[in-house]
Design brief:
The chain is an alpha/beta fold and 293 residues long. It folds into 2 domains: 22-262, Phosphoenolpyruvate-binding domains (TIM Barrel); 268-293, no CATH class. Helices cover 41% and strands 13% of the residues. The chain contains 12 helices and 8 strands. It has helices at residues 3-8, 34-43, 55-63, 75-78, 90-102, 122-136, 150-158, 174-177, 186-202, 214-223, 244-247, 265-282; strands at 47-51, 68-71, 108-112, 140-144, 163-168, 206-210, 228-231, 239-242. It has an 8-stranded parallel β-barrel, surrounded by 7 helices. The protein binds 5,10-methenyl-6,7,8-trihydrofolic acid, 3-methyl-2-oxobutanoic acid and magnesium ion (MG). One of its GO terms (molecular function) is magnesium ion binding. Mg(2+) binds at residues 73, 112, 144. Its EC number is 2.1.2.11.
Length: 293
């Protein structure tokens, strides 16, 4: 097969023909764009997303090949010590996003629009998103809501800012929704499908589905041309996201059941801090090699 005919024949769904171009494990070094995300759905390729809130952690995940990094407003809980995501400000997300952009060279960096920075309407949303693009250098923003955020999504996309939509459990609405599984009733399932279709029609490049029954998330995934990113939404989604401090066992406290823990950083950091403290108290640190003479 010549290169030309290879380029012209689309790969069958789910089959990877050119692994040099995959989002994870690909050999490309330039920064990933939303067009690469769209192409991955066409290839039927699954991909991982992690949150990041600082340059150092982001550089570790970037070197590990994580293609999309989310500066989530979960920074409120996981980085800034708030109870919920509600108090997080645009100034805070802008500062953290700038650090994550500086810490990465390949990942597409997506920033959450925090509560109160887009609900007033499309013009407020554009003003907020423009700050994140100009001051922090993010490649896309995420906002919660499908039909209810339609006008915001449309104006951002028309203005040249890629939008990721967030449906299902939307934590900025904790005071009206709580943290509960969404889309369980037939009515709620239909609303979720309408929201996903609205986000796609408004030009969103991807949709996060949070805490949605797996069968419903799979149905939404099949009915969209843009990828779904699941968190507590089953294996039928195109991509998966976790909060990094949950995934690495740093958060502490009770975890949502959708979290898989890949390390015990809380234990590692605590043990190291105790070892340092005991060395100082006992006089074992600093030793001669840690001193100048
Ligand atoms: N550390 C952290 N991890 C997250 O995943 C996360 C945040 N913070 N902050 C923002 C939102 C809030 N999220 C949450 C918070 C709580 C539950 C929770 O308690 N879920 C329970 C009950 C679900 C039910 O059965 O209705 C669970 O066991 O999953 C889920 C998602 C997800 N996001
Ligand atoms: C959990 C993800 C999707 C999020 O919105 C966040 O981290 O804020
Ligand atoms: Mg969020």
């Amino acid at each position: 097969m010549t290169q030309l005919s290879a380029a012209q024949s689309p790969a069958p769904k789910g089959q990877k023909t050119d692994s040099s171009k995959t989002l994870y494990g690909g050999k490309g070094t330039r920064r990933i764009t939303v067009r690469d995300i769209t192409a991955a759905k066409e290839r039927g390729e699954k991909w991982p997303m992690l949150t990041a809130y600082d340059a150092m952690t982001a550089s570790v995940f970037d070197e590990a090949g994580i293609p999309v990094m989310l500066v989530g407003d979960s920074a409120g809980n996981c980085h800034l010590g708030y109870e919920t995501t509600v108090p997080v400000t645009l100034d805070e997300i802008t500062m953290l996003s700038a650090a994550v952009v500086r810490g990465t060279s390949r990942a597409l960096v997506v920033a959450d629009l925090p509560f109160g920075s887009y609900q007033e309407g499309p013009v407020q949303a554009l003003r907020s998103a423009t700050r994140l693009v100009k001051e922090a250098g993010v490649g896309a923003v995420k906002l919660e809501g499908g039909e209810r955020s339609l006008a915001q999504t449309e104006l951002l996309v028309q203005s040249g800012i890629p939008v990721m939509s967030h449906l299902g459990l939307t934590p900025q609405s904790v005071h009206t929704m709580g943290y509960r599984v969404q889309g369980r009733s037939e009515e709620a399932a239909h609303q979720l499908v309408r929201d996903a279709k609205a986000a796609e029609a408004a030009g969103a490049f991807a949709v996060v589905l949070e805490l949605v029954p797996a069968e419903l998330a799979a149905e939404v995934t099949r009915s969209l041309h843009i990828p779904t990113v699941g968190i507590g939404a089953g294996a039928g989604c195109d991509a998966q996201v976790l909060v990094w401090t949950d995934m690495l066992g740093l958060t502490g406290g009770r975890m949502p059941r959708f979290v898989k823990q890949y390390a015990d950083l809380r234990g590692v950091l605590g043990d190291a801090a105790k070892a340092f403290a005991e060395d100082v108290v006992g006089g074992a640190f600093p030793a001669a090699e840690h001193s100048v003479h």
